Amino acid sequence: MHPIFLSIGKFSIRSYGVMAAIGFLLGCWLVNINRKYAKMSADQASTSLFVAMIVGIIGARIFYVVQFFKYYRNNLWGIFRIDQGGLVFYGGFLFGLAALWLYCRYHKLDIVRVLDVYAPALALAHACGRIGCFLNGCCWGTPTDFLLGVEYPAGSPPALCYPGAHLHPVQLYESAEEFLLAGLYFYLVRHKKRGVTMSSFLIFYGIIRFFNEMVRGDNPKIPGTILTEAQWIGVLLVPAGILLLIHFLRHEPKNTELSH
User: Fold this and answer.
1) Is 8 helix (H, G, I), strand (E, B) or coil?
2) How far apart (Å, rounded) are the C-alpha atoms in residues 215 and 11?
């Protein structure tokens, strides 16, 4: 845990913000490398990224604040301190997707192919963001005797939740998984039919998030169920992705596999 990246007097730069910025820049780089597969101009790629990022951050923060509102009831200013962490990926994904859909509709871009192009970039950005979560000390895991278990500093939220325990570095598990998936999506967007990359993203993210939640120590189960909110969303994402994948594999003509 290393929440402060750099301090100069009273001014400090948080590690979470640094990793989020690195993730965004790497995501931009990947989108620009692959934009030709969605017939996007350089201007369209950069503008759509900016719009999706801003709206996505807002959505991710809204989901987090709603989920943990008890922490902000007496600290409303803290709602705006996203540099301290506290973003829900699903919220950012849904809000960003809506913004991207509107942008593509306005500019007459193929939303499916644009999402194909975005998939490796989003996975790469998310992988960096999860490293930021680990450094910030949020999204912590459950107690473990596994050799990779980590003990957080006394007084930190995970240490207060599980005093003296070694916890799964679940943030780093997910980061490693996302780095691997980013490579897979990068290959798929260049070699497979329209929609295959986007569908694969839904399937694999739903799977890894479902299982990672099993060793998450900060997300409560939904009352009356044995699953967290993120797991329920994963349960919906996986079959939706499978149905979309079957559709695109069966019905997408080969001559639309790549859009140069």
Assistant:
1) strand
2) 35
Please give the C-alpha separations between residue 193 and each of 16, 105, 109, 190, 258, in angstroms, as whole numbers.
Answer: 36, 21, 17, 9, 7
The two tokens of residue 98 are 């809506």
**pLDDT tens over the chain, length 260 residues:** 788 888 887 788 889 889 989 999 999 999 999 999 999 999 999 999 989 989 988 888 887 777 777 777 777 776 776 656 667 777 888 898 999 999 999 999 999 999 999 999 999 999 999 999 999 998 999 999 988 999 999 989 999 999 999 999 999 999 999 999 999 999 999 999 999 999 999 999 999 999 999 999 988 888 899 999 889 989 999 999 999 999 999 988 765 545 44
Helix axes 229-251, 196-212, angle to 10 degrees: 160
Residue linked to tokens 């597969």: 37
DSSP string covering 102-170, please? HHHHHHT--HHHHHHHHHHHHHHHHHHHHHHHHHHT-S-B-B--STT-B-PPTTSHHHHHSTT--B--H
Rounded Cα gap, residues 133 and 110, in angstroms: 33
Pairwise CA distance, residues 109 & 52, whole Å: 15
* CA 68 vs CA 32, 75, 84, 247: distances in Å: 36, 12, 14, 38
C-beta of residue 23 within 8 angstroms of C-beta of residue 128: yes
Contact 201, 122 (CB under 8 A): yes
Helix, strand, coil abundance in the chain, percent, nearest 5: 70, 5, 25
Q: For the whole model, what pTM was predicted?
A: 0.86
